[in-house]
């Protein structure tokens, strides 16, 4: 029985458009972790509180999530290439504007615009890679998750290196790199056949959330992402390192994430069902967050929990994404938009909430809260396993979708 893996040896043999989008993905995902090493510097130089600086994540992720509800509608009408180009152009513009800002409130606002561009790009990029990659959906998703891991890894490293010059440096750097990504998309992504586009209704992602499989995965991902972003966004403060030190730590975190995305996750899904992998690895992440809370006063101990967290997050990111793309007959762009919109909200909530919990209670409290959230994600997967049979076995298993709401959601893709 096959559980959704393909031979990773075929991953490197891809069309040029896959590599163009993949390269731009790496740069786009750099935006998630880019501000990590400079959070303490921004707080210091702009006279901002930790909670205010954490809002740099919140505005970015909140707008990314909300905008993703509409990206499939946009891309189905103007085409994937133009959508990707608009998204990249917005990121260039708003990252440049953030670099030129003089206070934290303005940067928070420009990060929101950055999130809009990110939503247009990320949602469309995954569907583009899946459609163009050789080796099937699993190989495409592994490539996408590897780009995510590398982007998150390189983002803090670039942020740390440029942050030693000025907190503005990482924002200028992102603008320059995204401009290169824009050129790559223009040059390497071929023209589309407009006749092949199937317009998606504006309500499609909202109606897709009524699908039990998508709803189950989205609920689990909200709470999982809280744990994810507690580890990513809050940890720079208790670590107490310089910008370059933080950049190196989270570079290691992101490399670990990329390695397990590409090699470990496919190995596990060859042996186990996707839901089994999730219910094993999610509790391990919860334990890692508890360990982070216990070792918060030990810099080496906290660094180890960050690296171990990266290893676990790489597996979870890939398996969650594979599950979403395979769980229904919905168009992949619709499924991706609905799922991503919800999961990014968890990431938007976590950073400022973590900072406030540390102030209201004690420094370890954000990690314990993150661990509890990941436990809730585990329970959601266990309770919803009956809706995820297709994610485990694929369409060939002959799963009969009898739920009326699920059938209605699946039919959205055929609506004009």
UniProtKB/TrEMBL annotation:
<feature type="domain" description="Major facilitator superfamily (MFS) profile">
    <location>
        <begin position="17"/>
        <end position="389"/>
    </location>
</feature>
<protein>
    <submittedName>
        <fullName>MFS transporter</fullName>
    </submittedName>
</protein>
<dbReference type="GO" id="GO:0005886">
    <property type="term" value="C:plasma membrane"/>
</dbReference>
<keyword id="KW-0812">Transmembrane</keyword>
<dbReference type="GO" id="GO:0022857">
    <property type="term" value="F:transmembrane transporter activity"/>
</dbReference>
<dbReference type="Pfam" id="PF07690">
    <property type="entry name" value="MFS_1"/>
</dbReference>
<dbReference type="InterPro" id="IPR036259">
    <property type="entry name" value="MFS_trans_sf"/>
</dbReference>
<dbReference type="InterPro" id="IPR053200">
    <property type="entry name" value="YfmO-like"/>
</dbReference>
<dbReference type="InterPro" id="IPR011701">
    <property type="entry name" value="MFS"/>
</dbReference>
<keyword id="KW-0472">Membrane</keyword>
<keyword id="KW-1133">Transmembrane helix</keyword>
<dbReference type="InterPro" id="IPR020846">
    <property type="entry name" value="MFS_dom"/>
</dbReference>
<dbReference type="InterPro" id="IPR001958">
    <property type="entry name" value="Tet-R_TetA/multi-R_MdtG-like"/>
</dbReference>
